[in-house]
Design goal:
heterodimer; A: D-Maltodextrin-Binding Protein, domain 2; Dipeptide-binding Protein, domain 3; 2 domains; twelve-stranded mixed β-sheet; four-stranded antiparallel β-sheet; globular; B: mainly alpha; MetI-like fold; 0% strand
Chain lengths: 539, 337
């Protein structure tokens, strides 16, 4: 082709494209808008596979929507009528049937289920995926062990479409643990093809692309900028989702996320500051959902191994000197469930979280402090995680001011997010605020991690009490064997003990806050607190 | 000339080696344990140790360093843990975004600042001089994130003239095929007018933010150096010889006043490139600055090292270009090592 001819054709082609271009583009754009959900949030995933090394919380959302699990939860009406996952009711997802016997559970897989690349889902894939979750180490393996799922031998292939899970011990958390995000079913042949000797489970491959059979698949991911997900039109594990495409953009600036919502450019946003959220809620132009974290509490912790906090009287004095109501009003703008100030004659319930009987009572605090031998107070340091400074910083300032009134002088120690977990693990901070919430919503689960003498990471206070351990172990055994009377007694026992010994002072149950346009419906609350795109509808 | 450039580049090598060593040690000295961070909130000690092993952080420091330099020699900057991507790819993708924004910001700023500085210098004490003073003081004293937020509030939120501050392109526009990484140029090459318009509209506010901020040093420097030149002997001679004011100012005075302006320009450019983190945050711009800061917050070593190294190389190149420009503007300046 001569140069001149080439130029002619090129210009011709370009001119053609120019004429027809805009028209096609605009109509496509209008269509795309009505079938696409635009979500904005502060941060995005760092890994598309929950089994990966150090997958962050936004990564959980991708995994939840792109992979199927054997079972999921039914929904029930939660606070304010918002659908809330039902802890006790399971529904089939990839499995069409589940039979639980004394020491095992058998799952029959859907025969027509396929992965995104068209290969049928078989029992082999399920076993491989479950083996992977208990073998890769780190968080997934840890989460599986919380339900006594520890060894690959526990997962047995019965036939091509039947899998049996054998229980290691009787544990009431085993079945719920199969419905969390971790035990997802992965396309084993596809991943094995891309695995290497150094990486036998193919973690490098699934980090960058989804290899599942869930309702959505990731079609584009630009780390730190956006994730684009398309619906899997061949999905059979539930009713076909309404949203065809999800564009999830990272917008670091909170003010801009709010502006995008209010201008109607973004459809949904979470991680809005409490103040913004309160204002959006008040002006009523948008649908807002704000629901308490299941099994979650923000608390003030004290290291009980060192003076002055080794003295329960000191801890009680602090519990009477905290400005509870001020924290809820000024820091959270009322968006929290108080975990304090229950009336003195209220009986302890078999539930968690539940409020303590502490309230702000400076006279009592002073008296207790004098009784403990610190009539003039003492000096200490209060630490918090800068990663959640929006809440933690004003909270600590209020605590500092209030404790100053009974002579306890506190210095505030801000710890960068990257360092926070290291510091928690060391268990050396004398006095700090933190939040804990468990995926599995059972009191004994919470107490096992936070108060038991086995001293897990979350027993940040290093609290050890033989009596507490006996009650927690008792409750776990009673739950497994279904002995309700013994269970109730033990739960009430450990709640009472936790409140009188107060190694940690519950402050409030935080809320998850989501704002969306009026035409978006179908939001569901899940224990992982991320979005389930499958149920969302854009009118 | 080429030999001289080669010589200059040779001299840059020791400083680059120094940068590699210092960033490596500095990132290791940061507080915070990446293993604990990436093990997740519910990890126990054993899980953290497993992660540490996987990341190779259990090895002695010197071994980690040699492994790092060996990878560097192969052009491998390592993997970012927060975004999960190879650092080299990320920097390659993000640098054009920052560069496009910074260059455009600087261009706008130069187009306003230099005439403003010249006018202010030729009429000291006049209203234009006062205008120059006020704009530069305001520009430099308003923090960039504040200017950015105000612009977003007024032009996007209130007036709705500007598109949503959602990065380089409209959410529904498709990216032009990658040639230079500069969307304005790439979309022109592809003749994708829709993408060009979208990229251009997205650029307006962040560019204005950067321009307002970088106006001050350039305008002040132009004014000061013009004032000095205008009072010098050769300008008086030129005026006395009856040359037109235009010829005196543009041909004689401005050319001589340009050297310090160029220096300021290069400083402003390299400063903006690294420091427009805040602008990138406000406009959700996928640039290199916000990338580095996020990595720093999460103790993610590889991107921080990669960022510092890239910046060091950029500084070396910019300085070289400026030195060459000196020679072009003023033949008396020699390019020497």
């Amino acid at each position: 082709m001569k140069r001149r001819d080439f130029l002619k054709t090129a210009t011709g082609a370009a001119a053609g494209a120019m004429v027809s271009g805009p028209a096609i583009f605009s109509s496509a754009k209008a269509d795309a808008r009505s079938e696409t959900l635009l979500i904005v949030s502060e941060s995005g995933p760092n890994n598309l596979d929950i089994h990966g090394v150090g997958t962050n919380v936004p990564g959980y959302e991708v995994s939840w929507n792109c992979y199927d699990r054997l079972i999921g939860h039914e929904m029930k009406a939660g606070p304010g009528g918002v659908p809330y996952y039902d802890r006790d009711k399971f529904k089939p997802e990839l499995a069409e049937d589940m039979t639980i016997s004394d020491m095992s559970a058998t799952f029959k897989l859907r025969k027509n289920a396929k992965f995104h690349d068209g290969t049928p889902v078989t029992a082999k894939d399920v076993k491989w995926s479950l083996d992977r979750s208990v073998s890769v180490g780190g968080f997934p393996t840890f989460q599986m062990s919380a339900g006594s799922l520890k060894k690959p031998e526990q997962f047995v292939i019965v036939d091509d479409h039947t899998v049996r899970v054998d229980f290691a011990t009787k544990d009431r958390l085993t079945i719920p643990d199969l419905a969390v995000i971790v035990p997802c079913v992965i396309n084993s042949e596809l991943v094995k093809k891309n695995a290497t000797e150094k990486d036998p489970w193919g973690l490098e491959y699934t980090k960058m692309q989804t290899a599942g059979g869930g309702a959505y698949k990731v079609t584009k991911w630009t780390a730190g900028t956006e994730v684009i997900l398309e619906r899997n039109d061949d999905w059979v594990s539930g009713p076909m989702p309404k949203i065809k495409r999800v564009i999830w953009r990272m917008v670091p600036q909170a003010g801009n996320r709010r502006a995008l919502l209010e201008r109607g450019d973004a459809d949904m946003s979470y991680e809005l500051p409490y103040k913004d959220f309160q204002e959006i809620k008040a002006n009523g132009k948008m649908n807002v959902v704000s629901l308490p974290f299941s099994n979650g509490i923000q608390y003030i912790g004290m290291n009980v191994t060192k003076p002055p906090f080794d003295n329960p009287k000191v801890r009680q004095a602090v519990a009477y000197a905290l400005p509870y109501q001020k924290i809820v009003d000024a820091v959270l703008f009322g968006l929290a469930n108080p975990m304090f100030g229950a009336s003195a004659d209220k009986p302890t319930e078999v539930a968690w979280p539940q409020p303590t009987k502490y309230n702000t009572d400076m006279a009592k605090a002073k008296a207790l402090l004098a009784e403990a031998g610190y009539p003039n107070g003492f000096e200490t340091t209060i630490s918090f995680d800068l990663g959640f400074a929006v809440v933690n910083e004003p909270l600590c300032v209020l605590v500092q001011e209030s404790l100053g009134q009974i002579g306890i002088k506190t210095t505030i120690n801000k710890i960068p997010g990257a360092n926070w977990r290291t510091e928690l693990n060391k268990k050396e901070m004398p006095f700090y605020t933190n939040v804990f919430s468990g995926w599995l919503d059972y009191p004994e689960y919470f107490f096992y991690w936070c108060y038991h003498g086995d001293n897990s990471v979350f027993n940040t206070m290093s609290y050890k009490s033989p009596e507490m351990d006996k009650l927690i172990n008792g409750a776990r055994v009673a739950a497994a064997s279904g002995d309700k009377a013994a269970y109730d007694k033990d739960v009430k026992g450990f709640v009472d003990l936790a409140f009188t010994d107060v190694p940690r002072i519950p402050l409030y149950q935080p809320y998850v806050n989501v704002a969306m346009q009026k035409n978006i419906s179908g939001y569901q609350y899940w224990f992982h607190r991320r979005l389930d795109y499958r149920a969302l509808v854009k009118a | 000339m080429l030999g001289l450039i080669g010589k200059r580049l040779m001299f840059a090598i020791p400083s680059l080696i120094g940068v590699v060593i210092v960033t490596f040690l500095l990132t290791r000295a940061l507080p915070g344990d990446p293993a604990a961070y990436f093990a997740g909130p519910s990890a126990d000690k054993q899980a953290i140790e497993e992660i540490r092993k996987k990341l190779g952080l259990d090895k002695p420091l010197i071994e980690q360093f040699f492994r790092y330099t060996a990878d560097l020699a192969k052009g491998d900057f390592g993997n970012s843990l927060t975004t999960g991507q190879p650092v080299a790819t990320e920097i390659r993708n993000r640098l054009p975004a920052s560069a496009e924004l910074t260059l455009l910001g600087l261009m706008v700023s130069v187009m306003i600042a230099i005439p403003l500085g010249i006018l202010a210098a030729t009429r000291p004490g006049s209203w234009i001089d006062h205008l120059c003073r006020v704009t530069t003081t305001a520009g430099v004293s308003l923090p960039v994130f504040f200017t950015g937020l105000v612009l977003v509030y007024v032009f996007y939120f209130r007036l709705g003239w500007s598109p949503a501050p959602l990065g380089r392109l409209d959410v529904f526009a498709s990216t032009p095929p990658n040639v230079t990484g500069f969307y304005l140029i790439d979309s022109l090459i592809a003749r994708d007018w829709e993408a060009f318009r979208s990229a251009f509209n997205q650029l307006i506010l962040p560019t204005a933010t950067l321009a307002i901020f970088s106006l001050a040093p350039i305008a002040r420097m132009t004014r000061a150096s013009m004032l000095a030149i205008l009072s010098s002997d050769f300008v008086r001679t030129a005026r006395a010889s009856g040359l037109s004011p235009r010829a005196v100012i543009v041909t004689y005075a401005f050319r001589n006043a340009m050297l310090p302006v160029i220096t300021t320009l290069s400083m402003t450019f390299s400063f903006l490139l690294g420091a427009n983190v805040l602008v990138e945050k406000v406009f959700a711009w996928p640039g290199i600055g916000s990338y580095a800061v996020e990595a720093l917050i999460s103790s993610d070593f590889a991107p921080v090292q990669g960022f510092v190294l890239t910046m060091a190389v950029m500084y070396v190149l910019i300085n070289l270009i400026i030195d060459i420009l000196y020679g072009v503007i003023d033949p008396r300046v020699r390019l020497e090592g």
